From TrEMBL:
Binds 2 Zn(2+) ions per monomer. It comes from Actinacidiphila yanglinensis. GO terms for biological process: DNA replication; protein refolding; response to heat. Homodimer. NCBIfam families: DnaJ_bact, PRK10767.1, PRK14295.1. Keywords: Chaperone, Cytoplasm, DNA replication, Metal-binding, Repeat, Stress response, Zinc, Zinc-finger. GO terms for cellular component: cytoplasm. This is Chaperone protein DnaJ. Residues 163-241 form the CR-type domain. Participates actively in the response to hyperosmotic and heat shock by preventing the aggregation of stress-denatured proteins and by disaggregating proteins, also in an autonomous, DnaK-independent fashion. Unfolded proteins bind initially to DnaJ; upon interaction with the DnaJ-bound protein, DnaK hydrolyzes its bound ATP, resulting in the formation of a stable complex. GrpE releases ADP from DnaK; ATP binding to DnaK triggers the release of the substrate protein, thus completing the reaction cycle. It is found in: Cytoplasm. The lineage of its organism: Bacteria, Bacillati, Actinomycetota, Actinomycetes, Kitasatosporales. Residues 11-76 form the J domain.
Length: 396
């Protein structure tokens, strides 16, 4: 499993304000609303809003992932039942001690980010002991995974359909340049004596097993600065801003959340970088609309074109017009289809352009056109277009 004990102690459903049986759509809607309200860009200098935003992102990362949500629910149920009990072979008070690292196979990195194998603080007893001692008998400080970063980008309608490369300016925690990420202004921090460089300490959790917490003395770093750096105050991390060119794939939709692995904050002591999550907002187009992978457009036609049939030219998004055949007797509101002229799907194919016909009625009619319409009215005087309407109304 990839859920840490710290996450299991939190009610992530309560964080997002949704019930435990909430659907994926309800979770997504709640997250988007809260993320916009507490986003750091909208709450400059508000530390509480920033912390709340981190909690919201953390909850969404778990609950929006089907596998992780299942693991979280199962883990919460385990804690709710008092944990694991000693088995039949563990009599009296001499039962086995279980470390949650064996159960959940992951540890929590900075900022509440959960890491699996190869990152974070480790993944079970093997990683814990391997981090305590190397082959030479010395102490090895564990690497830490970088924080995940969330950003937003607004694309034009055309950019969302075709894809675009956009610059994103991001602020995150990175190794402090003044002390090279050591936290010590002399570059010589010492290994924390409490956790022996692992960044974690164990405590009894009841029910015959132990729990693992971040070390409070070194704040999970595994190192203590004797001479704290004046820039990062001993944390080894400092605020860093950078601009990155990010490729947004073709066919994205409004509100879609894109995950870019390894594009988040840099890791510490050789740990992997976090991930970058980009929430996409899409602007409107004055002519075209969108329905899944299909584009939509409304095209006006004359009465004679609709009645007698015609070939009409229709605009496309970013390409040459197409010609569609309008059958005789086409009613107002009928939809025609131009295949392959829509948005790009995930498999690389394109959707269609859905063309809705709208019969245009002139504001004024005069001359030969007026005479022709008068003749038409006389020729069709015995046809009542509302006859079926009244017939159906009487039978209801």
């Amino acid at each position: 499993m990839s859920i840490s004990r710290d996450l299991l102690e939190k009610d992530l459903y309560k964080v997002l304000g949704v019930p435990k049986d909430a659907t994926d759509a309800e979770i997504k809607k709640a997250y988007r609303k809260l993320a916009r309200e507490f986003h750091p860009d909208a709450n400059k200098g508000d530390a509480k809003a920033e912390e709340r935003f981190k909690e919201i992102s953390e909850a969404n990362d778990v609950l929006s992932d089907t596998k992780r949500r299942k693991e979280y629910d199962e883990g919460r149920a385990l804690f709710g039942n008092g944990g694991m009990r000693p088995g039949p072979g563990a009599g009296g008070t001499g039962g086995f001690n279980f470390d949650l690292g064996d159960l959940f196979g992951g540890a929590q990195g900075p900022g509440g980010t959960t890491t699996g194998q190869g990152g974070g603080f480790g993944g079970g007893l093997g990683d814990v002991f391997g981090g305590l001692f190397n082959r030479g008998g010395g102490t090895r400080v564990q690497p830490r995974r970088g924080q995940d970063i969330e950003s937003e980008v607004t694309l034009s309608f055309t950019e969302a359909v075709d894809g675009a490369t956009v610059p994103l300016r991001m602020s995150s925690q990175a190794p402090c340049k003044a002390c090279s990420g050591t936290g010590d202004k002399n570059g010589t921090p010492r290994v924390c004596p409490t956790c022996v460089g692992t960044g974690q300490v164990s405590r009894g959790g009841g029910g015959g097993f132990s729990l693992t917490d971040p070390c409070v003395d070194c704040k999970g770093r595994g190192l203590i600065a004797e001479n704290p750096c004046e820039v990062c105050h001993g944390s080894g991390r400092a605020k860093s801003s950078r601009t990155m060119q990010v490729r947004i794939p073709a066919g994205v939709t409004d509100g879609q959340r894109i995950r870019l692995r390894g594009k988040g904050a840099p890791g510490e002591r050789g740990g992997p970088a976090g991930d970058l999550y980009v929430v996409v907002h899409v602007g409107r187009h004055p002519v075209f609309g969108r329905k899944d992978a299909n584009l939509t457009v409304t095209v006006p036609v004359s009465f004679s074109e609709a009645a007698l049939g015609a070939e009409i030219r229709v605009p496309t998004l970013g390409g040459p017009p197409v010609t569609l055949k309008l059958p005789a007797g086409t009613p107002n509101g009928r939809t025609l289809r131009a295949r392959g002229k829509g948005a790009v799907r995930k498999d690389g194919t394109r959707g269609d352009l859905l063309v809705t016909v709208e019969v245009a009625v002139p504001e004024r009619t005069e001359g030969k056109a007026l005479d022709a319409l008068e003749s038409y009215r006389e020729a069709t005087a015995d046809i009542d277009p509302r006859a079926e309407l009244f017939k159906a109304a009487k039978g209801a």
